[in-house]
Amino acid sequence: MSKRFIVSAESTPKLPRHAKLRFDKARDKWIILAPERVFELDHVAYEVISRCDGGRSVEQVIDSLCEKFDQVGREVIMTDVTNMLQDLADKGFVVT
User: How many domains does the chain have?
Assistant: First the structure.
């Protein structure tokens, strides 16, 4: 049994080697493509995942999103990003 990845401000999330971020022209959406699995991303999820390169911490991802979406409060962004990344981590789409 593998250890569960818990997302924190210091985590440096990225997609696992078997998953790729791609734009699917047929769906007209960004997707995470993994063996026998496809996860469709909405605009906000893409903004988060596209910043998760294994080099930036969750805190840095949140900072970047706060600059882009300055009309949304930091607490809202922090909660949404952390929850989304934890959900993706639980499904095996995000690792550290």
Answer: 1
